[in-house]
TrEMBL record:
The chain crosses the membrane at residues 33-55, 67-89, 101-120, 166-184, 204-226. It is found in: Cell membrane. Pfam families: BPD_transp_1 (PF00528). GO terms for molecular function: transmembrane transporter activity. Residues 29-223 form the ABC transmembrane type-1 domain. This is Arginine transport system permease protein ArtQ. GO terms for biological process: amino acid transport. PANTHER family: GLUTAMINE TRANSPORT SYSTEM PERMEASE PROTEIN GLNP, MEMBRANE COMPONENT OF AMINO ACID ABC TRANSPORTER. It comes from Microbacterium lemovicicum. GO terms for cellular component: ATP-binding cassette (ABC) transporter complex. Keywords: Amino-acid transport, Cell membrane, Membrane, Transmembrane, Transmembrane helix, Transport. Belongs to the binding-protein-dependent transport system permease family. HisMQ subfamily.
């Protein structure tokens, strides 16, 4: 049918895909991973600071952490990227030159840190408070008990959520194109969009979407694996191997009561 051929040519034009594939792989994929990884690392550092401030006994630390989290979680990601990318453009030019690449990473880092901070806070607060009290009873300071005992356990519990957040950052990295990246700095979406505009065909965008799926789908299954592993534990119940492991049934010994004569 004509409409089937038209759809195939619009979305699955292999000539257009082959033409843009090297640029998607060599430029788009590399920049997407660099932006996402850098934003995640900075977001984890800032998020841990925000989480520790958010659970601090001091109101002077809790309140700024709460305000910071509410702002960067409440604003749309694209609005935050545009405000930071355009608002600090002149300052960035003096430091990094004309490239808006660093500002895109900074904006994504601030957004990610607000979500990661809440993830860390929930993980830390899920640790039984008795452990902190036991550490204090042993003479450890509050900061040392949190750093050595409570925080490591909280991080372990939120690893699946952190991987989920990285997946979200990978997808949000496509919004950085609004800042007008240089040709060598364009990520997957911008490379696919430019090729689609030049060819008048959507197949390059479809291929860019496939690249995103190659990144996100395995990570999604990895999250499910970690989540299942942490829920069920490493040890699984096994049946007894021999009769020695089984509990023998105790046969009651009858007792005969004699009568006095």
């Amino acid at each position: 049918m004509d409409w089937l051929d038209q759809l195939k040519n619009t979305f699955l034009n292999f000539d257009a895909m082959v033409a843009v594939f090297p640029q998607l792989l060599g430029t788009g994929l590399v920049n997407t991973l660099v932006i996402s990884a850098a934003a995640t690392v900075i977001g984890i550092v800032l998020g841990m600071i925000v989480a520790v401030m958010g659970i601090s006994p001091s109101r002077w630390l809790r309140t700024p952490a709460r305000v910071y989290t509410d702002i960067f979680r409440g604003l749309p990601a694209i609005l935050t990227i545009l405000l930071i990318g355009q608002g600090f453009a002149r300052l960035s030019q003096d430091i990094f030159g004309p490239s808006p690449y660093p500002l895109g990473i900074l904006a994504l880092s601030l957004i990610a840190s607000a979500y990661i901070g809440e993830i860390f806070r929930a993980g830390i607060q899920s640790v039984d408070r008795g452990q902190l009290e036991a550490c204090r009873a042993l003479g450890l300071s509050y900061g040392k008990a949190m750093r050595l005992v409570v925080i490591p356990q909280g991080i372990r519990r939120v690893l699946p959520a952190l991987v989920n957040q990285f997946i979200a950052i990978v997808k949000d990295s496509s919004l950085v194109y609004f800042l007008g990246l240089l040709v060598s700095e364009r990520e997957l979406f911008r490379v696919g969009q430019d090729a689609a505009v030049l060819t008048g065909n959507l197949s390059p965008l479809v291929l860019a979407g496939l690249f995103y799926l190659v990144i996100t789908v395995p990570l999604t299954h990895l999250v499910n694996y970690f989540d299942d592993r942490f829920r069920t534990g490493r040890r699984k119940a096994t049946p007894p191997k021999s009769g020695l492991d089984e509990v023998d049934e105790v046969t009651p010994i009858p007792v005969t009561l004699g009568s006095n004569t």
